[in-house]
Amino acid sequence: MPKIGMEPIRRASLIDATIAEIGNAGNLEVTVSQIARRAGMSSALAHHYFGSKEAMFVSAMRHVLTVYGAGVRGALSAAETPRDRARAVIRASFSGVNFRREVIAAWLNFYVLAQSLPEARRLLRVYQHRTVSNLTHALRPIMGPQAREVAHSIAAMIDGAYLHAALGGDEPDAKAATRRIEAYLALALSQAHAR
Amino acid sequence: MPKIGMEPIRRASLIDATIAEIGNAGNLEVTVSQIARRAGMSSALAHHYFGSKEAMFVSAMRHVLTVYGAGVRGALSAAETPRDRARAVIRASFSGVNFRREVIAAWLNFYVLAQSLPEARRLLRVYQHRTVSNLTHALRPIMGPQAREVAHSIAAMIDGAYLHAALGGDEPDAKAATRRIEAYLALALSQAHAR
DNA sequence: GTTTTTGTTGATTGACCAATCAATAACCCA
DNA sequence: TGGGTTATTGATTGGTCAATCAACAAAAAC
To answer: Of B115, B132, B148, B194, which shows the fewest CB atoms inside 10 Å?
Structure first.
């Protein structure tokens, strides 16, 4: 039965299963057995590849952040004006891949993990810093020194929308969140131009 | 040793200890024994008064929400203009009692609890609804129909600031959060007046 | 063709913990 | 003063689970 080169396949399955189980349970009290079962293998094999449950969580987190980062970069590459670059960050945050119940629940729990796991905290800080940085660089050409404050405000609104979505019953409303944050962006830009 | 009328005292101690332990651990994986020890009693007594760990969590949550609600009401009662009423909600959110590491960590974990515990979800939704409602009513007189959207935006920024603070190393920066959100409020108001 | 590496699992270990129980003691009222 | 109520805890129970181990199988290497 054992075919060669299974490691990357198994790891990917386990990471997907980890996110799915966290999303399903809504918290980190998921057992390695549950994750392994969903990924179609024994818990012993999960331990074989990741060493510990904690390591599985961190890998799942890194994966979510990587996918998110790729989405942002993709959207940014298609943007031309400063305003479009800011909108790209906002839109990527609420795009289908990232803004799903399952993934939102995972994000929420990663914040909890970051409270006690330094590596998780480090990863989330990198994400926060990048978001603010992306937004600041996008806005600086048209807003000058105010760019940083506005970037922080937009970042807060994005995170707030995620937290709000975590309480919503059905699928989250990406449209409303995008509209609201873009309205703020428009407002901030109009004021900057009226200066 | 047993004095009469201990129940309310014990309950209050346990609730405080629950919040402190969650804040200390950063997650909900705190044992009833830990909480009871911090509150100066045996775990059996904690079970005697609350029945279950879950009930202790919900009571702690209700307490945090009650304190927060009282803070908002107090600030609102001292406000006269619509703008001051909106600022009251913002300021209360970042006042010393609520915006402390310990309490912020508890909030974060209550969101996680809400993912699997209907009662916790209900409580948080009440809080969300009240915040938006307070802000909408404050802003309606000067913003008309836009009030609701702006209220949602401010609410998102408040929640986002909490999430951001949960990752901060030292004591959270209430000043910066308040300044940023009030700046947005000023912006929204100036646009409403320029209409 | 045998040895090493990679893949895989059932079973076990060791620890932890929520909840319950039995027992003790102080307080209050009739 | 003695039975009901409230306060309190040490010990136990029953269950869960992360992590490890021993063992087996297939592929690769030599």
So the answer is: B194
Q: Which of residues 48-67 of B touch strand D (CB under 7 A)?
A: 48
List, in order, residues 6 or more apart from A142 with CB less than 8 Å away: A82, A83, A189, A192, A193
- Tokens at B151, concatenated: 């209220």
Contact across the interface for A108 and B112, Cβ inside 8 Å: yes
- Residue A101 is encoded by which pair of tokens? 């119940």
3-state secondary structure of B172: coil
Percent residues over pLDDT 70 in chain B: 98
Enumerate residues near strand C (beta carbon within 7 A).
Answer: A 1-7, 10, 41-45, 48; B 1-4, 29-33, 43-44, 47, 51-54
Overall residue count recorded for chain B in this entry: 195
**Residue ranges in chain A modelled with pLDDT below 50:** 1
Q: Is A28 on the interface with B (CB under 8 A)?
A: yes
Q: Which two tokens stand for residue A80?
A: 């031309």
Chain mean position to CA A125: 12
Among residues A126, A137, A140, the alpha carbon closest in space to that of A69 is found at A126
CB contacts of B25 in chain A (<8 Å) are 115-116
Residue B5, classed as helix, strand or coil, is coil
**pTM: predicted TM-score of the whole model, two decimal places:** 0.95
